[in-house]
Structure formats: structure tokens, C-alpha cells
Amino acid sequence: MYPPEVIERLTDNLRPSIDDFVETVDKAVKRIQEDRKLDVVGLRYWQKEGLKAILNGLEKEKPSPVLIRLPTGYGKTIVGLSPIVYEVQRGWGSASWLCYSLPTRTLCDGLSDDIKDYLEYLGWVKPDEVCVYHGEADADEIFMRGHYDYATVAVTTFDTMVLSYARKTASGYHLERPSGFLATSYAVFDEAHMLQDMYFFSFAVMRAILKKLKAVGAPIVVMTATMPGKIYDYLFGGEYVAMIPSSPDEFKERAESYRGTFKAEYHEGKMLEDIFKSASELSWKRLLVVANTVDRAARTYEKFDASKGLLKLLIHARLTRSERVRRERLAKALLRPKTNCSQINCGREIVGPPYNYVEEPQVKILCDECAKMYEGVKRVDRIALITTQVVEAGLNISSDLLITDIAPADSLIQRCGRCSRFRGENGNVIITDVESPLPYPEVLVKETRSALMAMTQSELVDSLMELRDSLDFVNQAYDKFEPREIESKAELSELLTYVEGRGLSTFTVDWKLIDRVRARPDAQLTLVALKDAIWVFDVEPRWVGRFGHYKLTHEYEMSLSQLIDNARKGKNVAIEVNAVRFNSFSMSLRDVERVSHALIFEFKLGDREKERFLLALRPIRAREDEHGPTKKAYLIEKVDELRLREGIYLVNPKYYDDELGLRA
């Protein structure tokens, strides 16, 4: 056994200095750029400065929050991820884990592969130590790889992070595991600007959590490209924040030094449909169309004729997770200026469309020679991605033509970050008008429109690309915006008091209060669109408790129509957990109410009578005997009262299309 002074000296020798670690990250970034055939530039100046600011904070007992405010395409993710490797290298200093929070499930799924690849290049965090957790993932084992083994990096939604911190979710029966993980984590809030709502509800919750995490000494990093000054003031409330850069005027790099360029036009009075009709006549190989609503995106997609050699893709939030992830991976593989052949022992560079690809079991991009080895190869001369605001962050794609609905300034800037994303590219951006501002507040769209109309073409490009100009554009659009007062003000106040400490400072559990905890002003529902032939369990209630234990009697395959009929008759039938995870998507209660007819099932009782009901899914644990291993499943229950509440519901298959998703 070494004496303490020897152990301390040995440990110090293993700990890298901040400058040495930054150099290590720089070398890793250069290796990635070399392997991906990108310009080899390593870390840029402000990436290094941001990394140093975070690492210096890790040396303090109670570090101040760090705000990384860098433009789209600059590489903020690398800055947010790298410090966890520094912590691992020095034997866990200020934090033992990384909680990487993103606004949406789509972003979590889209970024997780990139995060795993990058951390593997650094060589200290293995891919299987990076886990994704949200409502479509393993919500019963938040932030854990196994029953007792924590993930080193948890990529999670803001919603799941809030519910875990407030003890609304549990790992098994353990309420303290998720909140304990967060309290000892290095916490990153990426794309924080996307959390906003008309009440600033989510920012109020985030502010309370930041305050609590800071008090216990947890390192905090908030990253954004387009956070308005009003949101910054609201979120940090005058407290000291280490801001990188400290002023937009300090950022001297022009956009063309780290990304491509584009020309931009705003077509006042012309709608997306008007421009889109002539899109086939324009010169492009990679087209990105962004509509403000799912319904508009779906209608645009249907009108687009897929000619020979043209691949069209539709991505939005009303697709099941499995289908959405498949399309995102295909888009990420094809919407880039160059890539390498996926075939083992080949790897030759393929520059731009045309591409050859096969989809099963996973997307493979093939050179002309390797394509001869496969049947069912599809050749792509042009690709058109039609989508919604889900594309605004996280998807590392690049188009040479972007056509977008007008939206608030911050959203427009994010969308333009997906045009000419890589150095050397040249593209075009066309901004069209809208008849209705929805889903955005009218004042934001109105003020953005006024700003666009007053700009010259060069001013418009600068406002969409350059950091200082883009922040001026955003602040101008938000100048007249004021958050509304939420109706449930007392409930929000009670929630904030709980999050700030009353609920976490005692082991007394107030289930009623915990059940009211939420991260957004509207309750979130999970909708499940099952396909035919589902693996099911016959179960019987046996052991009563909060989590509902059932005796598993039979396991077998069942058709969807039979499953619905059994649930209508009140039979205890459950489906395995992955069927829900892979075939679900989330919507706010307010949005679901507009398509509530898609959740209603009807059964004829006679010539004039009909039985109408909902089918809700309740998580249970089933096992063959009282002491045997449990299987997580979802019990399908008939609900006669046609009133939606927070929970999980089955979609009527008549209203879900495999290509278009949930129809309104």
C-alpha cells in the first residue's frame, strides 16, 4: 500500500495539464477531419477558448456556468463533449458523469452516433458508455447501462432530465439514482434556445435547475448559436456567467473561414407552394425544404414527383422512432458534399451525388465498383429532403438549395446552417411567406418579416451567417416579444419551489406533487403506431404495488386487429417494451387534441349504435413466478371516457401511413 503522498504524486503525473489536453483534442479533431476527407484545420480559436474556460472552471470548487455562444457550423458539440474525457483522465475531479441535454428526442437520436464516434477518437470513453435516454428509450433505467452500472455519458432530452431530477422517474425502485446522477454530473444544455415557449415555462424550470446545480458545485455549460438577449437575461438573472466569446464583437472570423457561402432571397407574398413548383427547374443536387408545420411538409412531399434518379425523403416529428431514425441516417449519409464508400476494404472517396446505396440491414453508400456486388442498389442523382423545424439543429447535413417558410429569426438562422455547411460549398437560400404564423407567436414572425424587408441582399446573407449580425437580427425580432402569463401560475410556482430544493432536501416523497412535475407548459403524450404482427404476453395481476407486477402466462405473436379486439373485451394483454419504443413518437396535449380522432377506435354494436373508446398503454412488470426475473411490458387498457390525459395511447392504424406518418 503506497503512502498518501506517493499516491498523490503518482496521480498528479497522470493528470494532463489544460494546455496538454487541448492539444490532445486538437489532434483528435484533425484525425477525424482526415478520415472524413475534410479540410484539416483542427480546433478553431474559439473552440479552444471555450474548452479552456470549461476546464478552468472544473478546477474550482463551485464553478460558474459557462455560456458557449458560437455560430451554426462552428463546432460547439466538440467543446461541450471534450471535458468529460478530461475528467476521466484525471480520475474524476468535479464530476463523475456527463449529462448531455438536448431539446428533442430527434436531436438525441441524431447526435448520439456522432458523440460516440468522437469520444472513441479521443480514446477514453467507449461507445457502449454513451447511452440515449428519453421517452422512446429505456425510461425505467434512466442514465444507466445496466441494473447497477451507470452510463459515463447520458444523452437525454431536457424533459427526461427534468423528470429524473425531480424524481418523477426511477431506476427500478430507486428514486435517488437519477437525481443523484445529475447532482454529480458535468451538465451540458445544448441548443438551449430551442426550449422556448410563449410562457418561458421551460426556461423557468431550467433556471431553477441551473441554480440548484450551481449550488452543489456541478459544472454547467449552456450552448447556443442564436439565444436572444431577452432569454439570456431571463435565464441567468444577472448572475455571473463565463461567456465565450464575452461579446459578439470579439468574434472576428468570417463565416467562409469555417463553412460554405450562399446567396439569399426573401420572396414577400410568395408561398412555399409557389416556389416549390419550379424547384425542379432550379439547379441543385441536394434540396432541403423546411415547412413550419407537419401538415404543410406532408402536402409538399406528396406534390413532389420523384423522377428517375431523384430520392425524396420526408422527416417530421409524427413518424415512429424506427422510421424517423432510418430516414435521418439516410439523409446524413447522402446530404453531404462527399463521403467514403461503406464497403469493407474499400473506403474510396465518393464526391457528391450520384450515390449508390442499399438500405438493409443498414444504409451503405457504395462506389460504382462495390455497387456491382449488391442487388437492389439504388442510384441517386439528386436528393430532396422535406422536413419541419426538427432539422434546425443536430442533423449534420448540407444542401445546395434551401427553400424555407419564414419563421422567427433564430429559427431561420438555424435552418440556413443546413445550407452550404462545409467549406468550399456555394448554395442558395429562398425564404417564402406564410399565411399563418403558427406554430410561432405572431409578433415574432411579424417582426422578422419587417427586418427581412428592410435588408439589402448582402445584409440578409450576413444576418443569416455572421455571429454579430445574426444576434442583432434575433434581438430585433424579439424586441416586442413578451412571454405570456401562464394560467397555472400557482402550479408553476409550486413546481419551481420543489425543483429548487424543497423536494430534494428530504426523503419524504410527495407523489401528488411529483406527478404534476413537467418540463413544458403542455403535457406530453406518447403515441404508438403499431404494425401488424406484435409479440404479446397474456398476463394476470398478482403482486400489487406502484409499478404493477403481473404473472406472465403465455407469450406469442398476435395480429394488430386481434390485439385491438382483445383490449376492447377487457382481456389482459401486454406488448413487449421494444414494440412501444421503436413505434412511438411524442406530441404535446394541445397538438394531439387537434388530431384526437386518430386515437379513437369504433366498434359497431348494432345498426345505429357504436362503441367508441381509446386504448391506453400502462407500463408493467411481468414474471412467471413471484421470485423470477421480470420483463418490462405495456398493458393495453380500454378507456371509455374520450378525454386525453398525459400518458401513452395507441394510434388507430387507419390514420397512420408508413410513408407520411400520422395524418391530421
Q: Can you describe this structure?
A:
This protein is of the alpha/beta class. Helix content is 34%, strand content 24%. The chain has 22 helices and 29 strands. The strands form seven sheets. It has a seven-stranded parallel beta sheet, sandwiched between helices. Strands 8-18-17-9-16-10 form a six-stranded parallel beta sheet. Strands 20-21-25-26-22 form a five-stranded mixed β-barrel. It is globular. It starts with a helix and ends with a strand. Mean pLDDT is 83; it is low at 1-13, 170-176 and 503-507.
Can you tag this structure with a few keywords?
single chain, alpha/beta, seven-stranded parallel sheet, 29 strands, disordered N terminus
Helices and strands in order, then pairings?
Blueprint: H1 4-14, H2 18-35, H3 45-58, E1 66-69, H4 76-89, E2 97-102, H5 105-122, E3 130-133, E4 153-157, H6 158-165, H7 176-183, E5 185-189, H8 201-215, E6 220-224, H9 229-236, E7 242-244, E8 261-271, H10 272-277, E9 286-290, H11 294-303, E10 310-315, H12 321-334, E11 338-340, E12 349-351, E13 355-358, E14 364-366, H13 368-371, E15 378-380, E16 382-387, E17 401-405, H14 409-416, E18 426-433, H15 442-453, H16 457-465, H17 467-477, H18 489-502, H19 511-515, E19 524-528, E20 534-543, E21 549-558, H20 560-568, E22 573-576, H21 577-582, E23 584-588, H22 589-594, E24 601-604, E25 610-623, E26 631-639, E27 648-650, E28 656-657, E29 661-662
Parallel strand pairs: 1-6, 1-7, 2-4, 2-5, 3-4, 5-6, 8-18, 9-16, 9-17, 10-16, 17-18, 19-27, 21-25
Antiparallel strand pairs: 11-12, 13-14, 13-15, 19-23, 20-21, 20-22, 22-26, 24-25, 25-26, 28-29
Helix pairs in contact: 3-4, 4-5, 8-9, 8-18, 15-17, 16-17
